[in-house]
Amino acid sequence: MSTADTIAERETEIVEEFAMFDEWLDKYEHIIELGKSLAPLALELHADEWKVKGCQSQVWLHPVRQSDALVFQADSDAAITKGLVALMVRVLSGQPAASIAKAPLGFLDRIGLHEHLSPTRSNGLASMVKQMKLYAGAIAAQEASHG
After folding, report:
1. What is the pLDDT of residues 28-48, one digit of tens each?
2. Are 101 and 140 in contact (CB under 8 A)?
3. Is residue 3 pLDDT above 80, yes or no?
4. In the annotation, is 55 catalytic?
5. Element containing residue 99 per DSSP (H, E)
6. What whole-number distance in Å separates Cα of residue 42 and Cα of residue 48?
7. Strands 69-76 and 59-66
8. pTM (2 decimals)?
9. Which is it for the CA torsion 135, 54, 57, 111, positive or negative?
């Protein structure tokens, strides 16, 4: 269970977690395990409306506004991809929309994901991050306009 409260703290926690593994095969297994920890996504949310464009595997991402935070629900039909989206949900879910929109997410490079993912998975991960930031940016703009 995470005790990290901010995006930066969660990123640091994940970097430390991945540092415990010497081999990328072990890191992939960890990513797959993370995917298994995702809460089930309601069947009605497995709709095109919530599908992330640009992912080779199917990925559904549903943002839910909860008071001053944005919570993400997600699922994928592929094990590693589901783990990747679980990683992003773990870092960004429950954070203020404005913080999500501007988060640099340096942990992805620090754990070496961009170097070790296939180009299609790397593009899919970029699409997930982009979609999460788009949702967050739209909600942050809405919140700012309502004062």
Report:
1. 999 999 999 999 999 999 999
2. yes
3. no
4. yes
5. helix 97-102
6. 14
7. antiparallel
8. 0.93
9. negative
